[in-house]
Amino acid sequence: MVEDKIILGIDPGTTVMGYGIIHIQKNKMSMLNFGIIQLSKLENHPEKLKRILDRLNGLIMEYKPDEMAIEAPFFGKNVQSMLKLGRAQGVAIAACLNHNVPFEEYAPRRVKQAITGSGSASKEQVAAMLQTLLNFDEMPKYLDATDGLAVAVCHHFSKGVGEHNKAKGGGWKAFINADPKRVKK
Q1: What is the DSSP string of 81-124?
Q2: Where in the chain are the domains?
Q3: Of 86, 129, 165, 180, which residue is most buried, by most CB within 10 angstroms?
């Protein structure tokens, strides 16, 4: 089976949301687009959520992704920030579901690990590795754009097995099925 698909990657945010779109053809990965959705100038949270929905609907209609990958929110100490970030992520997921685009979620450390080999890599290290992998000339002003791209590339490298699909190709069940002798009864 020849692989030919488009993956939309999202780095959710409430000030700046990053996105990246890659095309996989056979074994070749190329970048179609990456950028940000600027939200900082909007006055209230509902306006930000509407902007996210509108822009993602536009990107989905233009690029027609086969799959979407989104970075899971990290757990911080500020509950209000976490709530707002979760809403932004939910709107992004809803936009994809509304267009029948399946999604998968990846932890931030896993995305960094997939791109650089280190789960504690900096945004700059991730961006530099993506620049090498995808051969783009100019680094964007906001590295949220390369973070969105990183989520899409992580999804490709992970063969679509993220936090929601672990049962398909990962997690404890797959580990036990692969090596049942390691389980004591």
Answers
A1: HHHHHHHHHHHHHHHHHHTT--EEEE-HHHHHHHHHS-TT--HH
A2: 4-182
A3: 129
CA 180 – CA 176 distance, rounded (Å) = 5
Query: CA–CA separation, 178 vs 136, rounded Å?
Result: 39
Query: Looking at 67, 104, 105, 144, which residue is catalytic?
Result: 144
Cβ proximity of 11 and 147 under 8 Å: yes
pLDDT along the chain (185 residues), means of 10: 87 95 93 96 94 97 97 79 90 95 94 94 95 92 95 91 58 49 55
Are 14 and 88 a contacting pair, CB within 8 Å?
Answer: yes
Q: What is the pLDDT of residue 79?
A: 84
Contact of 3 with 25, CB cutoff 8 Å? yes
So what CATH class is 4-182?
Answer: alpha beta
Query: Would residue 144 show up in a list of annotated catalytic residues for this protein?
Result: yes
The pLDDT of residue 82 is: 85
pLDDT at 176: 46
The yes-or-no answer on residue 43 being catalytic is no
Do residues 165 and 104 touch, judged by C-beta distance below 8 A?
yes
